[in-house]
Amino acid sequence: IPKGKKVAPAPAVVKKQEAKKVVSPLFEKRPKNFDLTRFIKWPRYIRLRRQRAILYKQLKAPPAINQFTQAFGRQTLAHKYRPETKQEKKQRLLARAEKKAAGKGDVPTKRPPVLRAGVNTVTTLVENKTAQLVVIAHHVGPSELVVFLPALSRKMGVPYCIIKGKTRLGRLVHRKTCATVACTQVNSEDKGALAKLVEAIRTNYNNRYNEIHCHWGGNVLGPKSVARIAELEKAKAKELATKPG
């Protein structure tokens, strides 16, 4: 290098040329999928439950049946008025018999206010206008058992609500399942809580009866139908785009 001449500085960014990896088209990479969920043979009751859920979504449901999809939130007031179990009744009668044997006199106990369960019992209470509140399960089968109760309750001026789970109602009355329960009377200390609950239920169900009965349910397309419709729409759009003028 001649004296007095400077070497040009190196460029700020030197791009390294990466060698492209040549992939043979003869050998395709097929990563293993260890998720075997779709190969599992599910029990029959699970398959039926899933098929029933798909049918409920895809079949068109009239408003009288669709109203059972609008469920009310959980309230714990009813837990205080559960009927006594067989063991509790046995203990109560035993204590009463011991008092009678001790010569303290037999004083019959007044029947406490409890929930009344069963479709026939609740229907009679609603017809007689003695029920203060009616609670209906949302997935009773067949639906003909309870489909008339909302209309009957509204006609008789009895507040009604729909909650999710006939097993939850069954727990209240010491059964496996229960379609409907009714509350006829409560203790004086719970009358305020019941009045607030009834007011909220009337606003959500009784007063909105005509509005609820305008809406049909179901009629939801499955993934195959949605994909087919999207494919047809795409073909139509492509045809319109290529059409001259």
From TrEMBL:
A GO molecular-function descriptor: RNA binding
Keyword Ribonucleoprotein: yes
PROSITE patterns: RIBOSOMAL_L7AE
Alphabetical list of Gene3D superfamilies matching this protein: 3.30.1330.30
Compositionally biased region (Basic and acidic residues): 81-109
Record keywords: Ribonucleoprotein, Ribosomal protein
Domain Ribosomal protein eL8/eL30/eS12/Gadd45: 110-192
GO terms under biological process: ribosome biogenesis
Keyword Ribonucleoprotein belongs to the record: yes
GO cellular component, one term: cytosolic large ribosomal subunit
Pfam families to which the protein is assigned, alphabetical: Ribosomal_L7Ae
Residue span of region Disordered: 81-114
Family the entry assigns: Belongs to the eukaryotic ribosomal protein eL8 family.
The protein's assembly and partners: Component of the large ribosomal subunit. Interacts with CRY1. Interacts with DICER1, AGO2, TARBP2, MOV10 and EIF6; they form a large RNA-induced silencing complex (RISC).
Cited function: Component of the ribosome.
PANTHER family: RIBOSOMAL PROTEIN L7AE FAMILY MEMBER (PTHR23105)
Protein name per the record: 60S ribosomal protein L7a
